[in-house]
Amino acid sequence: MDTHKSPDRIDQQEQPSETNKSSLWVFAPLSEYQVPVLPASSAATRTWSSLTRLFGGGSPQQQAPTPDREEPRPLSPPRLDRLAPSPDWSAAIMAFDRTLDDWWRQENVDRPVRFLIGPPYGGHAEMVRRWGAALGAMVVAEPSGEQILAEDARWLADWPGAQPLWVLPHLEWCFLRHANGLSLVRQLLERAESGRLGCGLIGCDSWAWAFLEHVWPVSRPDALSIQAFDGNRLAQLFAAMATPRYGERIQFRNLNNGKDILTAPFAEDEEVGTEIAELAAHSRGTAGLAAALWRRRLCAGPEEAEDTDASTAEEGRTEVAYVEEHIEEVRPSADFGEEEVLLLHALLLHNGLAESLLAQLLPLPSSRTAATLRRLHQGGLVELSDGRWRVAAPACVAVRELLCSRDYLCDSF
What we know:
Strand order of the largest sheet: 1-6-2-5-4-3
Distance between the termini: 39 Å
Number of strands: 12
Number of helices: 17
Low-confidence stretches: 1-7, 47-67, 306-313
Shape: globular
Strand content: 5-15%
């Protein structure tokens, strides 16, 4: 008997515009995940060792900045938030709900626990948390670092088993790569997959998932991922995220060569240029990461007047937003040693760590760990958010390339 008191469906409460946006989000088994490839026209002429030519359309000589070129001006924060806000994931949650198809309501559920796996900045944890909250599910908080290292099973003993549905957004925060840091997550996975914890949804970062597949090597063919965005879907997503002023449209234009890149609202017959496809390939199709890189490149044109207020908008006008291609690149230094690489790898495996825990996980004196962390922060490679140090979004791709080149365990996203 279904005793759940949640709404019948999440998407019944959404507006039609949100329903249209949700069609951009595709959820599929991990085995079907496909990283977008660089367009053939670009692969022959570009290398991704540098981001400075990310939106270039001409030859390397044409792409080089001229010495007397005026530096582009940054956009005002309100305008930047209007042109390229962070994804709010609402449309993704609608699509995700339809994919799950009320599996937890079925009698004699043969798969009591489902998984949603996503790369850094992919939004998987936020989707799991908000999906559960919308359905009245119990949102389970991860154990503290002290509980993990003490192998404190009271965290599992207090599990909300009486609830018809629970969600755990951050499986990657339920273990530590330490001799004493794996007991709780092993017990959690055993109890969850045996059905002893009832029906639940678990979110996990892709780097932690790659590690946990060795810790708990059980096949999970029904684990879901957010299918990577190709150029066409990414262009539609950027256009849907932007908010044109009343009666206007927004034209995103390459600052270097004047080429139009994208228009919002998005027209069905609009031709998507290679620039967006290149960004999709570079960000490996991760929506949140691509959005962060896109936002970082938006600027005001040198010839523009000060940002106009919404009151000056006119019917039929086009607001032009420029995309800068020559920006400072965030990359690890070529002479990085093992200390820096070990620290970056630890941050990715756990999707962020508090500094106190980081010092316990690395084979370094705490003073060396602190100094290394400060150097990485000064270089823009890591950032502090909600008490956890993470690899910064602009550095994610380059850090991943570094770790792969050093034969460290990497995710498959």
